[in-house]
Amino acid sequence: QVQLVESGGSLVQPGGSLRLSCAASGSIVSINAMAWYRQAPGKQRELVALITSGGTTNYLDSVKGRFTISRDNAKNTMYLQMNSLKPEDTAVYYCNAGAARGSSYRSYDYWGQGTQVTVSS
């Protein structure tokens, strides 16, 4: 069983920065990657960034160069550093555990409660 808890969401002005955190507990041997998803009102949940157990990362095209996913294994925590935030980044952000093979990612049904990011002036 895996439990995930997100934190760090806030209201921020365009161009600002936030760092989201996801604290993980428990483990399943088949999990070899974790990811950040987001869901805006009226839209489907989309994969924002992922990181594998080996440290390989991948990003949604619209956030490349602005967002950085990372992890601290000692703290069992994953992070999403978000810079140059835009209004279209507004969404509830969720962390997720799953499995990656190459550039593909299979989401397992392990989710945090979500943290709200609002980018507005």
Structural summary, described in words:
The protein is mostly beta strands. The chain contains no helices and 11 strands. It has strands spanning 2-7, 11-12, 18-26, 33-39, 46-52, 57-59, 67-72, 77-82, 91-101, 104-111, 115-119. The strands form 2 sheets. Strands 2, 4, 5, 6, 9, 10 and 11 form a 7-stranded mixed beta sheet that branches. It has a 4-stranded antiparallel beta sheet with strand order 1-3-8-7, with no helix packed on it. It is globular and about 45 Å long. The mean pLDDT is 94.
Describe this protein with a few key phrases.
121 residues; mainly beta; four-stranded antiparallel sheet; 0% helix; globular
Helix run count: 0
Residue fraction in strands:
over 45%
Structural class: mainly beta
Radius of gyration: 13 Å
Low-confidence stretches: none
Shape: globular
Largest sheet: 7 strands, mixed
> Could you tell me how far the N terminus lies from the C terminus, measured between alpha carbons in angstroms?
40 Å
How many DSSP E strands? Answer: 11
- Report the mean per-residue pLDDT as an integer: 94
Percent helix, as a range, is under 10%
What is the succession of H and E elements? Answer: EEEEEEEEEEE
Give a quick precis of the structure.
This protein is mostly beta strands.
Helices, strands, pairings?
Layout: E1 2-7, E2 11-12, E3 18-26, E4 33-39, E5 46-52, E6 57-59, E7 67-72, E8 77-82, E9 91-101, E10 104-111, E11 115-119
Parallel strand pairs: 2-11
Antiparallel strand pairs: 1-3, 3-8, 4-5, 4-9, 5-6, 7-8, 9-10, 9-11
